[in-house]
């Protein structure tokens, strides 16, 4: 990633509370996205919280993207927005049964299907 002006973090970035096994092993991030997060995540978090001041145009644009996610254009910006969504957003939960009960008059057995086809 030498084509970016973005600073590497002072330390590798991990989120052990939301992704205890690592970003890629969570199944939500690719290996490339995991590498971007671990290398640049410390800087991106510092810029987002205001602990770091932007030093170049890419970092200034990153701060604008935090305020307006529709402006994201680089991989770093998109992967940070994805991280924010997954780490701070609501976790989706899908159940196997619904709220409504099936109508008792409907017969979904295999025999009923074969009889109707004949």
From TrEMBL:
Biased composition (Acidic residues): 105-118
Region Disordered, annotated ranges: 96-118
Pfam families linked to this entry: DUF413 (PF04219)
Similarity comment: Belongs to the MaoP family.
Protein name per the record: Macrodomain Ori protein
Species the sequence originates in: Vibrio nereis
